[in-house]
Amino acid sequence: MPSATMQVCFLYNHDAGHQVAHSIGIAAALAQHHPHIRTVIAYGSPDIQAEIVKHLSQEQIGLLQWLDLSLPAWANAGLQPLNRLFPARRLMRLWAGAKRLRKFDMIVSTERTCLSLKRRWRDSGPAFAYVPHGSGDRNVAYHPALRDFDLMLLSGQKLVDQMEANNIAPASHCRIIGYCKFDGLKSRTPDKFFADDKPVFLYNPHFDPVLSSWYDHGPAILDWFAAHPEYNLIFAPHVMLFYKALHISPEYKKGRRRPDLKPQWLECPNILIDTDSDRLFDMSYTLAADAYIGDMSSQVYEFLYRPRAVFFLDVHSGGKSGEGKPAYEMWQNGPVVSSADELFRCLPLWQGVAAQYRAEQQRLLAYTADVGDPRPAAERGAEAIAGYLTQQSG
Question: Low-confidence residues of the chain, pLDDT below 50?
Fold first, then answer.
């Protein structure tokens, strides 16, 4: 058993709260089931702390310890212009809190910005564990920088295969734990967002200006639903899409201004628009909808927790992979189109699409999220961390 002085820090340093649910359950399980390990939550702002607390019971809150990495108001304001170009606030919080973070035996994170500290400390700092905030198929899922993580807590075999195939991590550095956001779904019933029983479509575009369908096709999609009241639409984009007006893709080095919302859409009784609430990432909408429209967000796998119709807009890949399959594995879950007009011809066929793709959706979800193990993903993740520390302590 590790020494009682073992300390694990769960780091929540993003500007938005959408990554919290991917790992906070692991932190709670570690504190509850492995009390010999001191479990600390490090948060970057009061808003992020508030989001974290929503996922915890009073007992869990009491078992965890807390570390505030917030910057002073003047620093937040001064970094605002730079934050539009790169994660300036995240980096500054890391640098300002480096001395306090270095004392831990392990830092657990859902994003790779924290690795700037590991590169700074080299081999003298804590181990770093990675919990992906999603289970997508883009190359950012296996970005070369991820090689610096010591332990990978992954949702399913697909991600292990991705890490091995791209020389990111050997299987020995990976632990399959399932998908933490699924832990609370077994007793949860979908919310009802419209007064009628018309089919509900969820439109969930990405924020990246190269990958997202919103910039060139999104307004046409909302116009179409406004003109077709026989369908309901939930417009619930990635939470970062409306975080700022100008988006620069770090992956493709291109920037675009985001189209704004038209006032008339807000008045349509069959359209629900949400650009900034917690429901964008708490699975409320993915549980409630009958069909999904997206592009590159891995949130499609959260929708496919229960197989249903899925449609994709390809605005950047130019077609199929060399094997004749869609350019991304996630696009095997439903039809892939290249324009809004093509999408509109497909949408009335949503029930047939659901039946046609059901078997493939079930196969891909099992490959992605290891839904067959009855143990909660949070407990599996906590066991993996405790086991790693035991091994490292000799």
Answer: 1-3
Block residue for tokens 């058993």: 1
Measured between alpha carbons, how far is 237 from 46 in angstroms, rounded to an integer? 24
Whole-number Å distance between alpha carbons of 174 and 170: 7
pLDDT at position 3 is 47
CA distance linking residue 132 with residue 143, whole number of Å: 12
CA distances, 148 to each of 133, 168, 372 (Å)? 17, 9, 30
pLDDT in tens, 270-286: 999 999 999 998 999 99
Which segments of the chain are extended strands (E)? 7-12, 38-43, 65-68, 106-109, 127-130, 151-154, 174-176, 200-204, 232-235, 246-249, 254-257, 271-273, 291-294, 309-313, 336-337
Domains along the chain? 7-183+376-393 (3.40.50.2000), 200-369 (3.40.50.12580)
Query: Based on the number of CB atoms within 10 Å of its own CB, is 366 exposed (0-12), middle (13-18) or buried (19 or more)?
Result: middle
Summarize pLDDT for 106-160 with one digit per residue, the tens.
Answer: 999 999 999 999 999 988 899 999 999 877 776 667 788 999 999 999 999 999 9
**The token pair that represents 107 in the structure block:** 């830092």
Closest to 232 in 3D by CA, of 207, 268, 179: 268
d(CA 386, CA 37): 8
